[in-house]
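Record type: monomer structure entry
Structure origin: computed from sequence
Chain ID: A
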Amino acid sequence: MTDGTLAGLVQGRKVFDLGMELYHGMPHHPMQSPFVYQMIREHGDLVYGEGVTAAVDIFGMSCHTGTHLDGFGHFAENLCLYGGVPAGEGQSKTEGITACGIEQVAPILRRGILLDVADVLGVPSLDSDQIIGAKELEAAARTAKIEVRPGDAVLIRTGWIRHWPDRRKYYSVQSGQPGINLEAARWATDQGAFCLGSDNFAVEYVPTPGNAYPVHVHCLVERGVHLMEVVNLEELSRSRTHEFLLVVIPMKIRGGTASPVRPLAVI
């Protein structure tokens, strides 16, 4: 493929970066580990020939810190994973969930659609107690003149990312966060959605009924539908873009229950 051909493929395209930055001190869920970073070799620690130096750094994090994609090993019901696989089979502290590790998820290049619930309701961000049901998703789809098709990645905007980087506000498990309920999740999965994503930290409304996370169970355990969390949808919303190519490349973390990702919306 020539340089001219490559230029033709991308000419006129706009790319929206939907991922949040990873940095020391960034917000994280209180049940997850923080992002940690350190320079282990600074410039000047070692000098090569002719004054050349190199810096080296390390980082560590939970697979569920920042923008990430949930795999099917993340949730189980009655100790059963998606497809009825017993959670105890192939599960270990060092090997993860070998039956359905995140490394088995292929690169995602799919039609993405934005259902901008906050915009339809005329608010910058939904209130912490706002529950999104099927009728709200239907209204957002009608407003955008778009419909969910089998294989789509459905991204739902609540505006909650506007509270970033206030960790106490964004990740508040006490006062809650807006999100979809089980009815809304069923509406999307019944139409064949491949993935549901949102700009909040759980996709679903929190606190969940009975602390049972019904949307996670429905999507990850019952239907085999991925969830993508902490997605920045603000620029996409401002551009009034509702249909795009979504590109998501999960890391090959063997046995991982999730992977940090940097989603791209290409129009």
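Annotation 1: Helices lie at 3-10, 117-120, 134-144, 167-170, 182-190, 214-223, 234-238.
Annotation 2: The radius of gyration is 20 Å.
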